Amino acid sequence: MSNVFVRFLIGGLALLAAIGYKNYRDLAAPGKRPDLDNNAYWGPKLGKQIYKENKAILPYDITVNPEVIADLKSQLSRPLKLQEPLEGVGFEYGFNANELRQVVKYWRDTYLTNWSEREQYLKKLDHFQTEIQGLKIHFIHAKPSKEAGKQGKKVLPLLLMHGWPGTVREFYDFIPLLTTPSDKSDYVFEVIAPSLPGYGWSQGSSKTGFGVAQVAVVMRNLMLRLGFEKFLVQGGDWGSLIGSNVAALFPENVLGYHSNMCANNSPMGSLKLVLSFVFPSWFVDGQFAHFYKGAGGLFKTIMEEMGYAHIQATKPDTVGNALIDNPVGLASYILEKFSTWTNPTFMALPDGGLTKRFTYDQLLDNVMIYYVTNSITTSMRLYSETMNKAQLALAVDSVPITAKTGCTRFAHEIAHNPDAILANKFPNLVHSTYFEDGGHFPAFELPEQLYADFTAFVQKADL
Fold first, then answer.
1. What is the pLDDT of residue 463?
2. Least enclosed by CB within 10 Å: which of 19, 237, 342, 349?
């Protein structure tokens, strides 16, 4: 990449940051919490009815109708009409057709043949549903083992949130670590892991304007519904952004915030990001310089990896409708991210390195949740409802998070922010770590490492 282009990119980013700073300055004073309706109704049109929220918390049966499974197997049995990959190409052009054939074959002949076992596996955690602001919200509720009390462990409630294209399936190896007493931690956790609204078994909004700030309100109301006035928050991807909004909007409820994808999208954060491209030594600790890729690396990432976000932020229903009732397309679209976002070098491999860190069963569990709940379109709408002027006008990113914060960085995450950039957003950053392995889905890929980091943060925060 030429130096002229890099300078042009830096200049453009500086201009955008300046425009963003003016917008934020005009719209909200730093530290001022936006005035959001904490009881806004997001369900379908009521007509002349008066909405009365059903506050019951009920067990939720995730059993899939056998006819759905039979139909899926029939669809996967059709002849595959795939375009042959270019010679010598792995995943550089997207999901390699040769690997897709292997995935489909396994899905049809092995995974679905053993569906009753997979379904029982997904049921091994306790599933519930309740109604929040007109939306039926699904969540896993995992309580500590009885040994926790006997060992004198302190129990803390934890709101654990996934992102896209993930689901609660990411947490099946992580949650048992959190709920089981360990000699290495004084704490054990009571975990609430919701399917985000519009994802999996949680109902999506019927109205526009339902972005990360509004989702944060629903998540906080869910925790209050369950009797948790104060709780921890952990998340990556959308779970990180929603969690950040929960902590910013409701500091009275958040004991601490931990994320494997900490970001500072405030105006000051944007300005510091631009300056870090010009004067990296001002912001980046030299021993971790290899985690940061500069302006050229950022541009490369935007061009190679963020096309999906542009589509989903502008025309989510177009691509969503193309994937509904299209299992092969759905698997290709979702699983490609579990290749390149786990480790970008996997892109050069013919099989995308999918089974280097995951099994087909794990990956297909995640795809199945999207498929059987028909939630791919509603999940993608979160992009369009967040990346817009209305959400920007709330200026939640300008609100510093006062709760004690822990930020960890796994080497192959899409992007990282050093402490110097995070500082004004997280003035109470008490825990900051780097791992030389792992990618975008650490709870799924490296649950033990994420658990160790999270518990180290809680121990350090002395909550």
1. 86
2. 19
Name the active-site residue from 172, 237, 451, 453.
237
| DSSP annotation of 169 | G
Record the tokens describing residue 176, joined without a space. 């048992």
Write down the residue that tokens 């569990």 correspond to: 365
Q: Does the active-site annotation cover 440?
A: yes
What single-letter amino acid sits at 71?
Answer: D
pLDDT confidence bin for 24, thresholds 50/70/90: very low
Choosing from 383, 397, 412, 416, the catalytic residue is 383
- Report pLDDT digits (tens) over 224-235: 999 999 999 999
Catalytic annotation on 383?
A: yes
Distance of CA 12 to the CA centre of its chain: 28
Rounded CA separation 451/446 (Å)? 9
Contact 422, 429 (CB under 8 A): yes
Between 34-38, 102-106, 343-347, 406-410, the lowest mean confidence (pLDDT) is in 34-38
Sheet bearing 154-161, strands edge to edge? 58-59, 127-132, 135-142, 187-194, 154-161, 231-235, 254-259, 404-410, 429-435
The answer to whether residues 142 and 126 touch, using CB atoms and an 8 Å cutoff, is: yes
pLDDT in the model for residue 274? 82
Question: What's phi and psi for 240, nearest 5 deg?
Answer: -70, -45
Among 162, 416, 431, 440, the one annotated catalytic:
440
Number of Cβ atoms within 10 Å of the Cβ of 349: 16
| pLDDT tens string 78-129 | 999 999 999 999 999 999 999 999 999 999 999 999 999 999 999 999 999 9
